[in-house]
Amino acid sequence: MRRYVIAGNWKMNFTPSEATAFINEVKPLVEGKNNCDIIFCAPFVTIGAAMEAAKGSNIKIGAQNVHFEEKGAFTGEISAKMLKEIGVEYVIIGHSERRQYFGETDHTVNLRTKAALAAGLKVLLCLGEVKEERLAGITNEVVAMQTKLDLAGISAEELKNVIIAYEPVWAIGTGLTATPEQADETCGAIRDVVASLYGREAAEGLIIQYGGSMNEKNASELLSKANVDGGLIGGASLVAEKFNAIVDAAQ
Ligand code: 13P
Q1: What is the C-alpha to C-alpha distance for residues 146 and 121, in angstroms, rounded to an integer?
Q2: pTM
């Protein structure tokens, strides 16, 4: 049986003190709701404060990116070893905003994923089609290609530490949500590709989240779908009651 994973992607929001206040607000709301894993992925400088505030609770803190080299002349980058040393467990890789604005490709996403897994981090691997691809009817081909390229060279054992977040780019931050049927179908298509690569059992064990304007209103319907195992939430992860309502939908 797969477990729901409800993860907030704070993106470039929350200073350390704001994160502390937010975690202190959300912590009592989600307390004891252990039917899902709860993660907030924080900006690098905010991770420490968020971890401190979340200590002893059922909230885990992750990062939003990681570099693929171990160390060296890569100004502005953060290594997997650095994240690991401060106690980070999860890292988002390949978010569409990184692909769109910072030149990430499936190749660099693959390199980052390998480096994160090698360092013992768990990866929230993001992929999804843009609007033109959905309208052209090639969504399944696009996510299949991304899945294959992003997971290239990753072993079945390593795959156990990967969560895929299916995030249709046209649904991110737009208020447009994939219908539950669209989300289920595309998450299912991704699962089939993973089955073709790693076998059906591995694919059935893989957690696949939906992301893209998931909120307190649409979460239960999306999460009720067989292939949707959780959510990666942007905007609604910045408001304690909204995030808590999504956690409730996963109970
Ligand atoms: P929104 O929930 O704001 O659409 O963002 C989704 C997302 O990008 C999560 O990574």
Answers
A1: 21
A2: 0.97
